[in-house]
Amino acid sequence: MEEPQKNTGDKELVISIRDLHKSFGGNQVLKGIDLDVFQKENMVVLGRSGSGKSVLIKIVCGLLKPDSGVVNVLGKEVDQLNDRDLRELRLKVGFSFQSSALYDSMTVRENLAFPLVRHSRHLTKKQVTTEIESVLNDVGLMQTIDQMPSDLSGGQRKRIGIARTLILRPQIMLYDEPTSGLDPITSIEINNLINLVRVKFNTTSIIITHDLTCAKSTGDKVAMLFDGKFIQQGTFKEVFSSDDERIRNFYNYNFIG
């Protein structure tokens, strides 16, 4: 079922989630969550490890099916799509994996060429090279083009993973723990890149993280996930002005200097 995309002011509703449930065996991970993400908005989903954050974005891009509820992305009800329509939707939704998911046996050039050639077979070799060089310049890593992933730092691998996602020019970006395992300086660089991507590529994003600095730096809005439900949504300041003890404890544990 398709629904017309709603508008609030001049903002188009890009992702709409209603009463979403997901369990694995007897473990209820998502217990009826609602979420709206508007065009060019960075939505941060905060929560502890194992709280269901990554499950949520895998459902958004059709990698997992919900038990119940409605997930509407770009006007399409995701779990109702056939295989062909789901593949078409996924071309518009970029997924930046926590592990960067680069092919270890390929150079950076080959890693970036792979999705481009696979989905845009009409491109000439010169056009492919132009696209690769353009996106590497966007992430500030042109010098790595012929290096292997094993030669890159953790932060560089994150950037190349984002570049490989951007090369298909998605409308939506899903970031899974983009600063996980990185030092503070490199984390700031990744946060700045997420903000740059939104401006340059006009993307709408969901950013999954437990890093408060990332949330504060990148999020227009924050949704706090606890025990399978969103217990607070709003700006970073609104969420962490709450008197909810669960939110205060999360903030104190992840203290921002």
User: What is Rg?
Assistant: 18 Å
Question: How helical, in percent, are the residues?
Answer: 25-40%
Euclidean distance between termini CA atoms: 47 Å
> Which spans have pLDDT < 50 for at least 5 consecutive residues?
1-5
* Residue-averaged pLDDT: 91
Can you put this structure into words, describing what you see?
With 257 residues, the protein is an alpha/beta fold. It has helices at 53-60, 83-90, 108-119, 125-138, 154-166, 184-201, 212-218, 236-239, 245-253, and strands at 7-8, 11-24, 27-38, 42-46, 68-73, 76-77, 93-96, 172-176, 204-209, 221-226, 229-234. It has a 6-stranded mixed β-sheet, sandwiched between helices. Strands 1, 2, 3, 5 and 6 form a 5-stranded antiparallel β-sheet that branches. α5 packs parallel to α6 (184-201) and α6 (184-201) packs parallel to α7 (212-218). Mean pLDDT is 91; it is low at 1-5.
Features:
disordered N terminus, 257 residues, single chain, globular, 9 helices, 36% helix, alpha/beta, five-stranded antiparallel beta sheet, six-stranded mixed beta sheet
